[in-house]
Amino acid sequence: MKVIIFGLGYVGFTAACCIARQGHEVIGVDVSARKVAEINEGTAPIVEPEVSEMLTEGLAQGRISARTEIGDALDGADIAIVCVGTPSAADGAHNMGYVADVSRQIARALVGVSRAKPLTVAYRSTFRPGTCEGLVQPIFDSILGDDAPITIAYNPEFLREGSAVADYFAPPKIVIGTKDGKPDAAMDALHEGIEAPVFHVGYREAEITKFVDNTWHAVKVAFANEIGRTCLQLGVSAQQVHEIFVSDTKLNISPYYTRPGGAFGGSCLPKDVRALSHIAADTGTNLPLVDSLIRSNEAHKHRLFEYAVEGLAPGARVLIAGLAFKAGTDDLRESPNVDLARKLLAAGYALEIYDPAIRADMLVGANLGYAYSQLPDLERLLVDKAHADATAGKGDYARVIVTNATVKDLDLGGAETRDLGSLK
Q1: What is the third-level CATH fold of 262-419?
Q2: Which of 17, 18, 231, 268 is catalytic?
Q3: In the chain, which residues fall in CATH 3.40.50.720?
Q4: Which pTM does this prediction carry?
């Protein structure tokens, strides 16, 4: 098949590489000329295991290309997948501007085009229930009329940064929303060979799926961290309490997201929790637990800051090991570790940051904007492994603050550490 992907961020670029690996032709479209040039030259725009190798393979086989304009990309295409961002608006709702803009571009590119079969336009951006019917379909109808040569589908993704490729080929489930809830042949063909439960449902059932999943993950993180904070106050081992709790797979589900440690962050959980709170308020639904999640998370960030600097002299030299919200990725969007770094700087500590996945000159798009809006001196703060090892070896760090598995790359000698990723 020929697949066009709009938006080459984490979700879109990973999907492009995986779909090409499946043997399909993939054309990626993104507004960033720099990102497009890097992809066509064989440089992945994100840090994620396996994608660089898959990009090289796809380019060599002629299955991957990228461009900044649609042009004739839709000619002969079977599926167009929209993966553009839906960032939080000021009121907590999702900003649907990028989705609307791309939908208009696709519709205009199809004006006057005769197709033997409809183009399936599948959306993976997170949508408020009712968006396909209330926003997307009217855009296509207004430009192409009632007989538009398209079929709209909503296909949420379930990729975790750091294991996105593995998650693509072995997802927990496949959800495909259509107007009548019936299967779409092109979408079924796209997922051929992927073993997972498949749900063919209406638009709204598919659209709410990510809100339910991500809010549940946020609930688990916030609950675990509230227990962790309580344990810290009482002198109780949070680690042992966690081991007891997750041993009960009959009643207490699983250890994922229920380990006391870092606050939740990244591009999905905070954004979708805020959006669900907005939807609830907009529809007159009272969700006190969901509404409290962001406040609980912010309280945990501050408690972790207090824990990190406990006993440190004013102005002490400290190293953060791990800035991205997940080790092995370069995603800084709403990373709790960025907030920690900002608090350390504001408190007057001499801060250095080590994260092997982050290069200041390689950050692009929303990731770049968020990083420098929160840490304008990011490039100066980042140090390499040799510098961090040497400084730790001389005993010049008053403390190394460990946020994730990044610390495994370092030789810290006898440097004092505080592990925020796993409260003891």
Answers
A1: Rossmann fold (3.40.50)
A2: 268
A3: 2-196, 262-419
A4: 0.80
